[in-house]
């Protein structure tokens, strides 16, 4: 027994060593077993070794043609040379070093669709094309577009040709018809030559002047008429023995003078003012005098030098005789309007000079040499204008009232002595009060008759 106990005592360390060895072997086996069933990680966590293997594998691939891999819902190994469709789930097996592919789960696929709506690209096209295929397709697309554009251009050009004729054909037709396209300058030259020709009939001359008046309304055309001597030809037409020639020549001159200083100056030097006054002072048809007065007004307005010459040549006497002539009431209103324009024009020029406080310019100096108001008083225009209030037309009365207001400072004493003027103003005041009341009933606070009534009241107040 002692011998057996000693033996057991000696074997105890050996058993412990054996046990430790078995535990170590068991641990080793467990580690070996886990490595056979190692978990895989996504491609992003690949090691340098696997990246090197992938690089070598990709370099061995054909760069132009790739086989498309069709994944399923199970993990499958991806062979070298196979292309993965966009949207597939790819992982790298760290144990085998191979890439594995499967279709995405439904929830992840829906998330990708949401990402597409937010602007991310999801390409589900699995077709494979080489670079040469793409180049050929692009070349064919360009050729097709060019052919389509060429067809559209040809169709459009065909439609245009149907609608319009070529300019060469039009020119040929015009030549056959002896039609020549002329400029305004060429037309005016032709019209002046026709008017000035001794072989032209009276009707042809009148037609030439009538057409010429249309062109000289434009400032440039009126100056062109001056440049080739046509203006003087028309001025000379005022001396014609035919009243119609005088009438239409004055008509052309009135249009050419209007707001055209260059033409106005040449007209004064060409003797237009004297000829117009002669027509107004002599016995002529009413229509001829109307056109002559129109030309005179266009020549005098905004031209102080012409106004000076008008006074020197006795223009006011000519107009006074015209106004007092029987049957010339229509011209009387136009004369009064002209006088009002000339008085206020000078007044405004002087007021502008006072406001600017500058040295008087040459134009203002010319206006100051026009002594119009004293001449009007001396030649009896205060009484002549006052008597025109007897005209029945409201428009004529309005213009006469305006002129009386402009002459009030100069003609105050004459107006005080004119008892007929006071009676006329009183009568008109009562008439226009009734008419203004009717306007007020119709809702017009500032009507036409109210303005006339204000002018009468202002004039009566100034005479007190």
TrEMBL record:
Source taxon at top rank: Eukaryota
One example GO MF annotation: adenyl-nucleotide exchange factor activity
Cellular-component GO terms for this entry: endoplasmic reticulum lumen
Subcellular location: Endoplasmic reticulum lumen
Residues covered by the Nucleotide exchange factor Fes1 domain: 148-225
GO aspect biological process, one term: protein transport
SUPFAM superfamilies the record matches: ARM repeat (SSF48371)
Keyword annotations: Endoplasmic reticulum, Glycoprotein, Protein transport, Signal, Translocation, Transport
Keyword Nucleotide-binding annotated: no
Signal peptide residues on this chain, from the entry's feature table: 1-31
InterPro entries tied to this protein: ARM-like, ARM-type_fold, Hsp70_NEF-Inhibitors, Nucleotide_exch_fac_Fes1
Family note: Belongs to the SIL1 family.
Function statement: Required for protein translocation and folding in the endoplasmic reticulum (ER). Functions as a nucleotide exchange factor for the ER lumenal chaperone HSPA5.
Entry protein name: Nucleotide exchange factor SIL1
Gene: SIL1
